[in-house]
């Protein structure tokens, strides 16, 4: 038996022996990462540069997109290196760092979605008091509290796994996760399991309770309100609900396949289920919000129009110079 601090590396056994196809897999994964970084950074820049978007809803969106960049960066560079590598090993410190990034991303994602539902609740149910209740100071405080509490919770979770006595270093996944490390323990893991379950329940129950409460109140106002109120609720809540369902399904897939016997499931399916919650939300959310929210869509159209106009002017100037010659 040895402490996890004495384990110098972990071996990831879920990678397929793909041979020459690994370059194709590398290209596909690299393309996904480039798309995720591009669309998230573009929306962050659009929100930060345009003063018309300096509103609470867009500030919370900016926090959501920054978290998606953070979570993707915790996965994709590591994944790309492992795809090209013939020996799929990872050092213990890097493994724990990835666990920290992945789990804090998950906590932040759920907490951000909960705060965004509270913001929509105030905007729809208390439109006249909205700017008073959701002041810039309160927005900043909610964003800081969301990030700080998520990092603190994951730090405590990993600190419980660090002193465990391990009987092996084999992780049957394509990335490191806390439960896979805990399953390697020879010592009693009751405290770790109880703390992990209680932490997950607290974060999930508190966030889901807030989301359910806010949407119940929003539905009540929609049924008793005007057509304009219903349209506003649908336009602003639809992308939020879609992103919430997308992330919840991905988290459920990951939890189910991590804690169940999945030997009868094909390896590619298991890899897809374990990566869904880390790839699909960062890829879909920017596209979803960018196409659904009117202000962002108008700014996009304006940017495209300006670029097309500049391009046409350059072409005209070029053709005029050719004619003169």
UniProtKB/TrEMBL annotation:
UniProt xrefs under PANTHER family: G_PROTEIN_RECEP_F1_2 DOMAIN-CONTAINING PROTEIN (PTHR26451), OLFACTORY RECEPTOR (PTHR26451:SF885)
Entry keyword set: Cell membrane, Disulfide bond, G-protein coupled receptor, Glycoprotein, Membrane, Olfaction, Receptor, Sensory transduction, Transducer, Transmembrane, Transmembrane helix
InterPro entries according to UniProt: GPCR1_Superfamily_Member, GPCR_Rhodpsn, GPCR_Rhodpsn_7TM, Olfact_rcpt
UniProt topology in membrane: Multi-pass membrane protein
Domain G-protein coupled receptors family 1 profile span(s) in chain numbering: 39-245
Transmembrane segments: 23-46, 58-84, 90-108, 139-160, 197-216, 269-292
Protein name: G-protein coupled receptors family 1 profile domain-containing protein
């Amino acid at each position: 038996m040895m402490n996890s601090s004495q384990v110098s590396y972990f071996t990831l056994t879920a990678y397929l022996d793909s041979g020459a196809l690994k370059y194709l897999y590398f290209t596909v994964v690299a393309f996904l990462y480039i798309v995720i970084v591009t669309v998230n950074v573009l929306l962050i820049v659009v929100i930060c540069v345009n003063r018309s978007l300096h509103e609470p809803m867009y500030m919370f969106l900016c926090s959501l997109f920054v978290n998606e960049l953070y979570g993707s960066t915790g996965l994709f560079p590591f994944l790309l290196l492992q795809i090209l590598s013939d020996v799929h090993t990872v050092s213990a410190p890097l493994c724990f760092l990835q666990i920290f990034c992945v789990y804090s991303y998950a906590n932040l994602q759920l907490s951000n979605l909960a705060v965004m539902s509270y913001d929509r609740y105030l905007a729809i149910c208390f439109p006249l008091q909205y700017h008073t209740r959701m002041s810039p100071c309160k927005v900043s405080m909610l964003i800081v509290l969301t990030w700080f509490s998520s990092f603190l919770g994951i730090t405590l979770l990993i600190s419980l796994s660090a002193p465990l006595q391990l009987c092996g270093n084999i992780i049957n996944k394509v990335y490191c996760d806390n439960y896979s490390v805990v399953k390697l323990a020879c010592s009693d893991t009751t405290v770790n399991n109880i703390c992990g379950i209680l932490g997950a329940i607290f974060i999930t129950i508190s966030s889901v309770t807030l989301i359910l409460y806010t949407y119940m109140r929003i539905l009540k106002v929609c049924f008793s309100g005007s057509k304009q109120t219903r349209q506003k609720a649908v336009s602003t809540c639809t992308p939020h609900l879609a992103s919430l369902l997308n992330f919840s399904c991905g988290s459920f897939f990951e939890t189910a396949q991590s804690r169940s016997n999945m030997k009868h499931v094909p390896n590619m399916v298991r890899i897809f289920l374990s990566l869904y919650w880390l790839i699909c939300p960062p890829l879909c959310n920017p596209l979803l919000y960018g196409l659904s929210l009117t202000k962002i869509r108008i700014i996009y159209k304006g940017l495209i129009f300006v670029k097309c106009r500049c391009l046409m002017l350059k072409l005209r100037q070029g053709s005029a110079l050719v004619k003169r010659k």
